[in-house]
Amino acid sequence: MLRGLRNAFETIESDESAQVVLICSSVPKVFCAGADLKERKTMTPSEVQNFVNSLRSTFSFIEALRVPTVAVIEGVALGGGLEMALSCDLRICGEDAVLGLPETGLAIIPGAGGTQRLPRLVGKSRAKELIFTGRKIGGREAMPMGLANYSVPAGEAHSKALEIAREIIQKGPIAIRMAKKAINEGLEIDLPSALELEEECYEQILNTKDRLEGLTAFAEKRKPSYRGE
């Protein structure tokens, strides 16, 4: 499953026509329930470490995809399942979604990015509470704390995600990629360096055909037709 997931994202990364990625589950009421604990019990410590390292690497690959990623969360997103959602750019939850990092209840910690990505979204104190207690929260609670971008009625997360994706694909593809790069990388460095990064990213779009198309379309009062050039 993990290898297949990684292969799918590698294919997307090399596909120039890809503009937005939605990550959904085909299983009702479960986005991703995390590790198979029965399987985990049969694994040696080194096997567990190798698996968790592979999981962390895959989620970092998702986070670094050049196109926006949206986690469409209906139902349960626990442990590694929530960590995968945290690696996405946006998260859309159904109101009956159940999100949590219950690892400390198993005497371990979130090991695939949870201890790092959660506090970057909800703040250090809130992240500590959720990880220390392993408390599960619903889709409605996830939005005001910054864990979800939207909480919608159960069963409507996919349609909301498609609505947002359609808004994104109307924008300049190169601009979207540069905006993602500037935000993601800029947050990890000091402000003066981040502003230099923003300048570098802006320079990448100055000589694009899309930038000229945007100005022309505005002057002609029509929708722009961007080609990622």
From TrEMBL:
InterPro entries given in the database record: ClpP/crotonase-like_dom_sf, Enoyl-CoA_hyd/isom_CS, Enoyl-CoA_hydra/iso, Enoyl-CoA_hydra_C
Family annotation (Pfam families): ECH_1
Keyword set includes Transferase: no
A single cellular component GO annotation: mitochondrion
Gene Ontology MF annotations: hydro-lyase activity
CDD domains reported for this sequence: crotonase-like
Leader sequence residues: none
Superkingdom, natural source: Eukaryota
Keywords: Lyase
GO BP term (any one): fatty acid beta-oxidation
PROSITE patterns listed in its UniProt record: ENOYL_COA_HYDRATASE
Family: Belongs to the enoyl-CoA hydratase/isomerase family.
Protein name: Methylglutaconyl-CoA hydratase
Species: Salix udensis
